[in-house]
Amino acid sequence: MMNKYCEWVLIFVVIGFCVLVNGFDETEFHFNTSEVISLLEASSAVAAPKPLLVGLTLIPGAAAKGAVCLDGTLPGYHLHRGFESGANSWLIQLEGGGWCNTIRSCVYRKTTRRGSSNNFEKQLAFTGILSNKPEENPDFFNWNRVKVRYCDGASFAGDSEDKANNLQFRGQKIWLAAMEDLMSKGMKNANQALLSGCSAGGLASILHCDEFGSLFPKSTKVKCLADAGMFMDATDVGGGHTLRNMYDGVVTLQGVAKNLSPACTSKLNPTSCFFPQNIVPHIKTPMFILNAAYDSWQVVSSLSTPAADPHGDWKACRNNPGNCSPSQINFFQDFRNQMLNALKEFSTSKENGLFVNSCFAHCQTERQDTWFADDSPVINNKAIALAVGDWFFDRSSVKETDCPYPCDKSCHNLLFRS
């Protein structure tokens, strides 16, 4: 990790170089911090150790079980074996990547790595919670670490097909085939196991948490972690329900209803039971919810979409929270309050963990800079990796809720261009 002093020296060197080359005219010279930071990151990358690259394993027996990607190809995962004290510990990370809710979107999706293993990367970089370096991943670096690829479009929960368009909606069967294959490769002997995922994979870790727990004997320590999976059934800026409409399409098209929590579906409709706020009260396996209070995916793709904002009043705010008006910030504060209220009952359980930071961010476990780094986000001086580790190993109770935006200066806010 580059020393902070060295970083600033490099910034001033870059500024000086720009002045030397371009001359200095205060009316024309603009210091673009993002460009300098990009140069800084590139320079840091030269000196930084290369991340571990882990090869792809396709599940050979999956097709016979009907467990296939949208286009009918085999599902797969990337496994890096544990060692020393972590040899019998397993961390499963479910890949994210949105959903498809119409025939058209699913037909397109099957031509990408989100719908066909033909387009999977043959190797993936394991960083953040998947890193094999103790200085980057202090509690899980030597565990068996697995990234399960996402190629169904329904958070590993569908079970249907559309023969006319050659679409297989087999997320639930992919989940089962992957777990069965990993159990045969030693996971059945685990003394501790953690199911995790981010974004659509975070939702999947919520949907499958109790199923995961049921794979193991009671003597095994089993917990679940959902990163950026707390998708809210919230009203968008136009007064509509963008995400509810999308989820209704996903659940209906992909045959998700039969795989949802019976405790939820006995009270609510299947689409409502695809929303985490209606699932987490029923989960019995200990779970950790990690989420940005102003989840950037939800801000851009659910709350303030162009369709919900036809006049473009939210465009600047959507791309950068620094451009938001007081009333727009109040809208996001209300969204934050809805999330915290939805998690009130969840957080009362001593077995559950909570880390909700007031950032405009999304997926903080897989990125090294947000998981565990010199300047990673903190609440009460505790980084995310340490909070998750303290919770998993019962070193301390973790129920961290940040103060409202913009009080947290440790955030790595995601900015967008349009």
Characteristic terms for this protein:
418 residues, alpha/beta, Rossmann fold, 10-stranded mixed sheet, two-stranded antiparallel ribbon, 14 helices, 31% helix, disordered N terminus
Please tell me about this protein's structure:
The radius of gyration is 22 Å and the shape is globular. The strands form 3 sheets. The chain has a 10-stranded mixed sheet with strand order 4-1-2-5-3-8-9-10-11-14. A two-stranded antiparallel sheet has the order 6-7. The longest helix is centred in the N-terminal third of the chain and has 19 residues, at 4-22. Mean pLDDT is 90; it is low at 1-46. Helix 1 (4-22) crosses helix 2. It has helices at 4-22, 33-47, 103-109, 171-184, 200-207, 209-213, 242-253, 262-265, 296-303, 315-319, 326-342, 344-347, 368-371, 384-392; strands at 52-58, 76-80, 89-94, 123-126, 144-148, 160-162, 167-169, 192-198, 221-227, 287-292, 353-357, 378-379, 382-383, 399-401. The protein is α/β, with parallel strands linked by helices. The relative contact order is 0.11. It is built from 14 helices and 14 strands.
SSE arrangement:
Blueprint: H1 4-22, H2 33-47, E1 52-58, E2 76-80, E3 89-94, H3 103-109, E4 123-126, E5 144-148, E6 160-162, E7 167-169, H4 171-184, E8 192-198, H5 200-207, H6 209-213, E9 221-227, H7 242-253, H8 262-265, E10 287-292, H9 296-303, H10 315-319, H11 326-342, H12 344-347, E11 353-357, H13 368-371, E12 378-379, E13 382-383, H14 384-392, E14 399-401
Parallel strand pairs: 3-5, 3-8, 8-9, 9-10, 10-11, 11-14
Antiparallel strand pairs: 1-2, 1-4, 2-5, 6-7, 12-13
Helix pairs in contact: 1-2
